[in-house]
Write a structure and sequence with these properties.
With 535 residues, this protein is an alpha+beta fold. The chain has four domains: 3-93, Orthogonal Bundle (Helix Hairpins), CATH 1.10.287; 105-348, DNA ligase/mRNA capping enzyme (D-amino Acid Aminotransferase, Chain A, domain 1); 353-458, Nucleic acid-binding proteins (OB fold (Dihydrolipoamide Acetyltransferase, E2P), Beta Barrel), CATH 2.40.50.140; 464-534, Orthogonal Bundle (DNA polymerase, domain 1). Helix content is 34%, strand content 24%. The chain has a five-stranded mixed β-sheet with strand order 2-13-10-3-9, sandwiched between helices. Helix 4 (34-57) packs antiparallel against helix 5 (65-81). The longest helix has 24 residues, at 34-57. It is elongated, with a radius of gyration of 28 Å. The relative contact order is 0.09.
Amino acid sequence: MSKKADDRAHPAVEAFTVPPDDPLRRKPVLALTEEEARTELARLAREIAYHDYLYYTKAQPIISDAEYDALRARNTAIEKRFPHLVRPDSPSKRVGAPPSEKFRKWRHRIPMLSLEDAFSDEEVRAFFDRALRFLGLDPATRLELTAEPKFDGLSIALIYEDGRLVRAATRGDGYEGEDVTANAMTIGDIPKALAGSGWPRELELRGEVYMRKSDFLKLNAEQQARGETTFANPRNAAAGSLRQLDPAVTAARPLRFCCWGWGYASTWPFKTQWEAYAAIREWGAPLSPLNRLCAGVDEALAYFRDMQARRATLDFDIDGVVFKIDRLDYQRRLGEVERVPRWAVARKFPAHRAETILKDIIIQVGRTGALTPVAVLEPVNIGGVVVQRASLHNKDEIERLGVMIGDWVEVERAGDVIPHIVRVLKDRRPPDAKPFVFPDHCPVCGSLAVPDGAIIRCTGGLFCPAQRVERLRHFVSRHAFNIEGLGDKQIETLFKRGAIRNPADIFTLKERNDELKLETWEGWGEKSVQNLFAA
């Protein structure tokens, strides 16, 4: 089916365009009038449906996870304040997006629900406090919880009869998904026949199809070499690969599977989530080795912090941690509300990506003369840190991204890595966006700048003040002489005021201080000067 025909299956989505920014979108929920709340809920219902369609059906999202979460959070907050305004098509009443017309539909016997998101430790504690109250347990009761990484992939249901895989379906809208059985059969991690014994005659396993980061990079390199479209991220690559009309294409893609639960089972003798996981593992389905059984919320939150610290080192994307009450009788008593269970919650990581405006591109000159373009950004909070600049690496990277001054860009900050731009949102490019022309002369000393492989390099050498300052900074850094008390700003100040011109001058500062009087300089003091001389 053509793209146009596929889109026609979703008329509300097809007719929707992202509205321009207006003051109502930014107005605090507590300040909304009832009529404004009604307008906002209508807008949010359509906008979230549009983004669900792009994410789940097309695997081509145009906003970050953090922005999507913010839309849903605003919708929830308005509905809580104005419960009588909740719409029949409210995002709080659905999961995912309708299945595509390209695949046969599959009705889930038990709905594939979403999870309630928690963005702070306090929200996690409040979630389980509510569960204790619902169960009628003492508030001091310590619930055992399973904790597991939340894979960022495509959810899938695997249906087994007499131990053999007979059906595979995507989540879809939670009630009806796409039949992708032929494609799932090509994924090595998915057991085609259950191992061992004791499995139910009818069993539905649920989990995530994903792609490892290393495999994603290799796939994109191969796609680029063939002149084919590359994928924006591993999640899009996994979703696009699983939802191929030709199973041979899926078979050629490095897809993985990790089980995180089950749906219908004709018999289920297990008393806890952890016990069930042990059996599922024996039946041949892969579960994450990072899963952990936690004795209470404190231990679970410590696990979350551990996963947050390890996140950048993992070879697969995770966007949080899922906590589940371990006792299955408690799970059954708690049940679900709207589109989420009352016995599980997803503690989301702070966003390590965000979208903002690229205001300018400046050139920094390194100690070897390399001209490095740096993006000047509209300040944006990424994972609790305000980011105002991001590396653009070199001229080739600017050309690869196709970035222009004034563009909306997606910025990533992971661990201690310098923030960098991962993509340009070209559909949001303003009419007055300007292309950046890389300079052919050094912006500091005016010397000719010449190509040196992928680098454009200033030919000024030590004539260039920028190179001299950067060499001095390197000299005092912990990778060289490790001179404490001399940071980047101090080196720049000393150079600008003529106190140092070369590394040897650093060692005569004490002798010359009667003349320099460093302790009287702004930002310096008696103690800091004495510490410098003692270093």
